């Protein structure tokens, strides 16, 4: 038999629920404001005490109203924050389960794809998904099974809000850890973001890829597999033997090298950091050859016209060339083994071609600085370069590699662009 105090508490709860049920949109807004202000940060026992052991009844009403209104943009942000009070409550795993049983994950993922909703609404939805993912591995798997990676990758690539993109990165990073069944899918989804038009999205995707690579907790994508398409069904997870965990997937090469064509320094920095990480952890065989090939890729050849008469155009091929010239120098300084492999891949020839590109001074400068390291470190490279450019030009190079390119005229540039310094005879 309940005490008088308990009866009063239950009566108070019933009055509150009845008030909610009868309230219209404006009144419900006020109720949500008061609820968030009074209960944010409370634990599960404290919420149950506040609601006379009936907090789940209010959570169910919040979920039901969300289901009815999220398509029409009615108080979505406040509603999601109110649900977050329950999902973030310490010892409140039961609330997470109850919300999931009401279809919570699917509702949140649908919110992410609605163009008419505000970015603030989507940010709150991502935060709720973070809380669900933090509840454990099976909850991460549920998000992935619901095509969550595809939705999140698309949002990261297309959102106009840096705050939303930051929250998405936190969630993708969480889904990429302690979730072996779907880590390949997360990695693939991040690769799908790299060709997008959002520099901040590219930067965050590169950061998360490197984080996953460092953790070594993912299996490489099967050879020939493609990244997750932003507008297609997500791939099914594949089980891979444990002895290949941590090996970089071949699918990373093309999008990573392509992102070097970005005009944004922050993207370049993250791309180079990922390159360093991949090279230190069994890089795909095509990575270093592809990087060296950017030094002489089509579109980087200097024009025959006088550059003083033709304004320099900053093309993606030129930007890639400059970024590759800088990257090979960084990689070589990090590892003598990598430096020797780059030499075998004719990197010296590629760097000299880049130095001769009068159409893009940044390529010339970056290539000069990287070439100076190879010349200083390997005597046989120094001798080959000396023979290729002649004593006078070589001495200018030795005196100041950073400004060497400013001393090169059109004829010398053409000689550099056509050098054969890495021919088999020279290496012999």
TrEMBL record:
Protein name: Armadillo like helical domain containing 1
A GO term from the CC aspect: cytosol
First and last residue of the signal peptide: none
Organism encoding this protein: Coturnix japonica (Japanese quail)
PANTHER family xrefs: ARMADILLO-LIKE HELICAL DOMAIN CONTAINING PROTEIN 1 (PTHR34258)
GN (gene name): ARMH1
InterPro entries to which the protein is assigned, alphabetical: ARM-like (IPR011989), ARM-type_fold (IPR016024), DUF5578 (IPR041090)
Top-level taxon: Eukaryota
Pfam families: DUF5578 (PF17741)
